[in-house]
Amino acid sequence: MSHLSLSDDLARKSRIAGILYLVIIVMGLGAELGLRGPLIDLSDAPGTAKAILAAPGQFRLAIAADLVMALSDVGLAVLLYLIFRKVAHGLALSAMVFRLIQAVLIAANLMALQAAWLLLSNAGDAGDMQSLALVFLDLHGHGYDLGLVFFGVNSLMMGALVWRSGVFAKAFGAGLAFAGLVYLTGSGLRFVAPHLSAAFAPAYGVTILAESAFCLRLLFQPSRR
User: Fold this and answer.
1) Nearest Cα residue to 132 out of 143, 118, 146
2) S-S: 207 plus which of 28, 69, 171, 179, CB 3.0-4.6 Å?
3) Residue 72's closest CA among 107, 44, 37, 38?
């Protein structure tokens, strides 16, 4: 089993990775929970249309935040590969690929939000357009969960890499792996048993804790003395 050596280069890469991870967490949660979530009610097309049209800047800012998150994810995917490739090159490369696929899906899926905005901003109070816009908003949610399938696999791989690294505590690896299981389960429910998604939603709190803990560990990776 290979281990990482504690070096100034590793510490520098880890801190940059931690900054990107923090950006991803803040932007992702901010876009979904703070900006977009309060505007959307998938059971109320007119109400959702009214809320979005009343706060166009907020809706567009959510799109921008998701785009920043996706761009940061690309950078983080490459950095984590550089950090962990000496632990298990094939596994680190695979983890990078799965994270990059997730970033591409998340970014491409923003077109569904843009389509909803174009429909609402050009249709006024037309009921058919409002209903169609709601379909695009729902499609975005499904596309986001599709991206999380790939991220769930990435998290399992990252958990194994962190566990084997010899530098990061194994608890971080276990946390990331468990987060991966949560992502895979939650996304699976979204597609095969959507009526259970709401009941499972609190489990995502585990992913926030696990990823935030690893983010902080990366940020405060000490240099060699």
Assistant:
1) 118
2) 179
3) 107
